[in-house]
Amino acid sequence: MTGAGDGIGRGVARRFAAEGARVLVAELNPETGERVAGELAEEFGADARFFPTDVTDRDQVEAMVAFCADLWGSVDVLVNNAWGAGTVGRVENKTDEQLARGFAMGYYGPFWAMRAAFPHMKRQGWGRVINMCSLNGVNAHMGTLEYNSAKEALRTLTRTAAREWAPTGVVVNAICPGAKSAAFHRMAAEHPEIEAAADRANPMGRLGDPETDIAPVAVFLASEGARYLTGNTLFVDGGSHVNGVAWTPDLDGEQ
């Protein structure tokens, strides 16, 4: 599971561990990665390991998958969650470098991981891929072009892989969560007005909790009960997707 050191990744990792899963905490930050792996072992008795992973580096992503297969003999579930590349700004002010980093983290990283994991899943005739996408892309939220674009590209990858891999027993689905992720908290720290506005805009009056609202859906998608569900996007967002969210941040003062 990539990006498991904080936010939604940590919440999903904790829920998987509570269900008895072995969890590979693939995380760029060694401090948070080690801490989460320790939490899973201590609180749930889980077989949890930390593996340092920069998902923008193909060699590291492939090494992550190989480590999992060597350690446990299989790769059963892949959760692509890592993100940390975004900035808030207008389309015309985005740079090539910002877009390239966004796609490296949000699209190529998951692609490399899926490509590496698929032979293991195909060999055993069973596998689950869960890609964390975003309503930002679906609703084309202002200010986050690289994030929106990479996440929508990832949804296309999700559907294409689901179609091609359907005969193999490997199912591929996406979750668009409405939750206070690590990326959300970083953005809110720079733009404090965002958190209250996001809560007000949600039909349920709040953004979700990673562990109690988002993670149970990921656990279902990883289960035998999801064996006939593939190529779908599940909007786990308190209803935000139904009518869309009016998201109009003030970008006139961007630096």
From TrEMBL:
<keyword id="KW-0560">Oxidoreductase</keyword>
<dbReference type="InterPro" id="IPR036291">
    <property type="entry name" value="NAD(P)-bd_dom_sf"/>
</dbReference>
<dbReference type="GO" id="GO:0016491">
    <property type="term" value="F:oxidoreductase activity"/>
</dbReference>
<dbReference type="InterPro" id="IPR020904">
    <property type="entry name" value="Sc_DH/Rdtase_CS"/>
</dbReference>
<dbReference type="Pfam" id="PF13561">
    <property type="entry name" value="adh_short_C2"/>
</dbReference>
<protein>
    <submittedName>
        <fullName>Short-chain dehydrogenase/reductase SDR</fullName>
    </submittedName>
</protein>
<comment type="similarity">
    <text>Belongs to the short-chain dehydrogenases/reductases (SDR) family.</text>
</comment>
<dbReference type="InterPro" id="IPR002347">
    <property type="entry name" value="SDR_fam"/>
</dbReference>
